[in-house]
Amino acid sequence: MSVSDIKKSAESRMEKSIDAFKLALAKIRTGRAHAGILDHVQVEYYGSPVPIGQVANVTVIDARTLNVQPYEKSMVQPIEKAIRESDLGLNPQAMGESMRVPMPALTEERRRDLIKVVKSEGEDAKIAVRNLRREANESLKKLVKDKEISEDDERRGQDDIQKLTDKQIAEIDKLIVTKEGEILTV
Predict the structure, then answer these.
(1) Contacts for 144 with CB less than 8 Å, ≥ 6 apart
(2) CATH fold of 3-27+107-184, please?
(3) Where does the Ribosome recycling factor domain lie (predicted)?
(4) Does domain 35-102 have CATH number 3.30.1360.40?
(5) 40, 41, 42, 125: most buried, per Cβ within 10 A?
(6) Digitized pLDDT (tens) for each residue of the chain, 186 residues in all
């Protein structure tokens, strides 16, 4: 394995950490409706749990309302039950073959709690990126120990990995600030 391979591997794994963080942020409810909020809700479908997106079409009607249109009429009740029992605090209303899911307004206390959750998720993502940096640096040290690269190459590689880490952590901080702004917007 070469220095460039280690850098490429670290970069792709750091990108995956940021993608996972973005998914975690998408699940955190702001006052606005967006179709992705129901992505992690599991519905019982012929005996096995599946994501709601596989059994229904989720669309945004307006800023505070989602429309869930099941592909099969028999799925209205199970979908309604799954949304109600999810940790999102939503109360769907069945309307014949579809259902509306109004987004309740967030209280000030709930907004503060959500911001704490966002910061916690952000810190977890930063820890993941730093762990990847540590692994990459250990790989570089092993190459030096095995006399495959020089100490100068190791130093340059560590500098590059540190720059990459700083860039990824700045991206995480930017995502945190953006999500806080969404949460605080009334």
Answers:
(1) 150, 151, 153, 154
(2) Topoisomerase I; Chain A, domain 4 (1.10.132)
(3) 22-184
(4) yes
(5) 125
(6) 788 888 999 999 999 999 999 888 877 766 677 777 787 788 988 888 898 888 999 888 887 888 999 998 888 888 888 888 887 778 888 888 889 988 877 788 878 888 888 899 899 999 999 999 999 999 999 988 988 888 888 899 999 999 999 999 999 999 999 998 888 876
- Kindly tell me the sign of the dihedral angle through the C-alpha atoms of 44, 45, 46, 48: negative
Whether the predicted model's global pTM rises above the 0.85 cut: no
Residues of the chain with CATH 1.10.132.20: 3-27+107-184
Intervals of CATH 3.30.1360.40 along the chain:
35-102
The residue assigned the tokens 């806080």 is: 180
Can you spell out the DSSP letters for the chain?
Answer: --HHHHHHHHHHHHHHHHHHHHHHHHHS--SS--GGGGTT-EEEETTEEEEGGGTEEEEEEETTEEEEEESSGGGHHHHHHHHHHSTT----EEETTEEEEE-PPPPHHHHHHHHHHHHHHHHHHHHHHHHHHHHHHHHHHHHHHTTSS-HHHHHHHHHHHHHHHHHHHHHHHHHHHHHHHHHH--
